[in-house]
């Protein structure tokens, strides 16, 4: 620095005065470089979130190291800071899952988070999610519980940006939304059986319909539309408690609770296995698909004191602990079928460079009997034929945690891709 420049900073000085002042400046610089790093821990993650709140498009995000552990094995613990949106701030909530609007008196069901046994699961960060998904797309393929999940995601992302509707149809069962600032598209493809199906009797033997399932023919309404998506989240489950007639090669091979003469009852398990096998084969046979498929496992219902059509309800207000309830009987069998078929799909997928991942929500949701709408899906005085809903989930509510899971899995995929572990052929 020229002497004239120093003079401007410190005033007119003599050469004799210059040495101690320069020395002081050097010492001050050293002190700043030593002390400042020690202060970094004082700037907490919550402080960064407060900064992001006022920064519409943050260029950098608080990173979270991903420790390898089974994030799906754990317990629900209290989270007083939840929820992260309300039924008043999010328009994406389906009416029948808008529990607070329709008078649910308790609020504790919204104030829990999932704590894995061996690590921490970070709360969903919408900025981080959208940065990871920039320029990408995600499809929810399955039943209305899958759509329930997508609506939770839209509500959580609303803290950053609202999407625009880019649906190619006016059919509410097939919606697509785009986040312009991130060029991220999310879509829902409603397909409760994953395979081609047809209602043949709206009542049926069990009073919830009788359906033909063509077990070896995938439902083309989704299978022909997903080739360009980067991620697929696939699910199916609750529709398999209805009466079904199973077809293969256009011929009846059996049924489930159909009560038809000379037709073998193959049980729901047979049909459940076959539809996942057919769906996964369809994905593996796509010519241009290079994405990742997540199988979101079955989320059990919680009807008590009766079935869905015989007065069953779900009025609990707190989660179960792990030692309070076990996965067993039908729920266990359906879960095991999904795991077995996923392993078969993985082996076939590797031959083509396709990836299948387990998105295991079964155990976590088994512990949440308090999270369903029950009778709070409509006004008490309304003349409706809706039964107590112990299948879908209140929003805000427990399935917001599914997006905690989802973001953590996307981080892992991002790390694998960056390190070259996941390269498609």
TrEMBL record:
<keyword id="KW-0735">Signal-anchor</keyword>
<dbReference type="Pfam" id="PF14416">
    <property type="entry name" value="PMR5N"/>
</dbReference>
<feature type="domain" description="Trichome birefringence-like N-terminal">
    <location>
        <begin position="67"/>
        <end position="120"/>
    </location>
</feature>
<feature type="domain" description="Trichome birefringence-like C-terminal">
    <location>
        <begin position="121"/>
        <end position="409"/>
    </location>
</feature>
<feature type="transmembrane region" description="Helical">
    <location>
        <begin position="22"/>
        <end position="43"/>
    </location>
</feature>
<keyword id="KW-1133">Transmembrane helix</keyword>
<dbReference type="GO" id="GO:0016413">
    <property type="term" value="F:O-acetyltransferase activity"/>
</dbReference>
<keyword id="KW-0812">Transmembrane</keyword>
<dbReference type="InterPro" id="IPR029962">
    <property type="entry name" value="TBL"/>
</dbReference>
<dbReference type="GO" id="GO:0005794">
    <property type="term" value="C:Golgi apparatus"/>
</dbReference>
<dbReference type="InterPro" id="IPR025846">
    <property type="entry name" value="TBL_N"/>
</dbReference>
<protein>
    <submittedName>
        <fullName>Protein trichome birefringence-like 19</fullName>
    </submittedName>
</protein>
<comment type="similarity">
    <text>Belongs to the PC-esterase family. TBL subfamily.</text>
</comment>
<dbReference type="GO" id="GO:0016020">
    <property type="term" value="C:membrane"/>
</dbReference>
<dbReference type="Pfam" id="PF13839">
    <property type="entry name" value="PC-Esterase"/>
</dbReference>
<keyword id="KW-0472">Membrane</keyword>
<dbReference type="InterPro" id="IPR026057">
    <property type="entry name" value="TBL_C"/>
</dbReference>
């Amino acid at each position: 620095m020229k002497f004239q420049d120093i003079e401007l900073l410190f005033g007119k000085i003599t050469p004799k005065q210059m040495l101690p002042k320069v020395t002081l400046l050097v010492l001050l610089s050293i002190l700043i470089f030593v002390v400042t790093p020690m202060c970094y821990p004082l700037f907490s993650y919550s402080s960064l979130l407060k900064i992001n709140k006022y920064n519409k498009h943050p260029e950098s995000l608080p990173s979270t190291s991903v420790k390898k552990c089974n994030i799906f094995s754990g317990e629900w613990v209290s989270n007083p800071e939840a929820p992260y949106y309300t039924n008043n701030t999010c328009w994406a909530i389906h009416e029948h899952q808008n529990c607070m609007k329709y008078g649910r008196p308790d609020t504790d069901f919204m104030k829990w988070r999932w704590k894995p046994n061996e690590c921490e699961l970070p709360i969903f960060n919408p900025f981080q999610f959208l940065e990871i998904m920039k320029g990408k797309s995600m499809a929810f393929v399955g039943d209305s519980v899958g759509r329930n999940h997508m609506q939770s995601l839209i509500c959580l992302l609303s803290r950053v940006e609202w999407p625009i509707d880019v649906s190619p149809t006016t059919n509410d069962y097939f919606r697509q939304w785009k986040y312009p600032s991130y060029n991220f598209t999310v879509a829902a493809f409603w397909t409760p059986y994953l395979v081609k199906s047809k209602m043949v009797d709206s009542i049926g033997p069990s009073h919830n319909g009788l359906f033909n399932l063509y077990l070896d023919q995938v439902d083309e309404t989704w299978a022909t539309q997903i080739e360009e998506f980067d991620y697929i989240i696939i699910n199916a489950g609750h529709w398999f408690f209805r009466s079904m007639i199973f077809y293969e090669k256009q011929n009846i091979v059996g049924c489930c609770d159909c009560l038809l003469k000379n037709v073998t009852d193959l049980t729901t398990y047979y049909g459940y296995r076959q539809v996942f096998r057919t769906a996964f084969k369809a994905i593996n046979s796509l010519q241009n698909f290079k994405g990742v498929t997540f199988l979101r496992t079955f989320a059990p219902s919680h009807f008590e004191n009766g079935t869905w059509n015989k007065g069953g309800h779900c009025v609990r207000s707190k989660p179960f602990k792990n030692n309070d309830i076990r996965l067993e009987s039908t729920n266990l069998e359906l879960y095991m079928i999904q795991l077995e078929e996923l392993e078969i799909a993985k082996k076939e997928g590797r031959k083509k460079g396709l990836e299948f991942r387990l998105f295991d929500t079964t155990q976590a949701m088994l512990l949440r009997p308090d999270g369903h709408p029950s009778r709070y899906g409509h006004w008490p005085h309304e003349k409706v034929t809706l039964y107590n809903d112990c299948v879908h989930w209140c929003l805000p509510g427990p399935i917001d945690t599914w997006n905690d899971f989802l973001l953590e899995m996307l981080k892992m995929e991002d790390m694998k891709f960056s390190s070259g572990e996941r390269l498609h052929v």
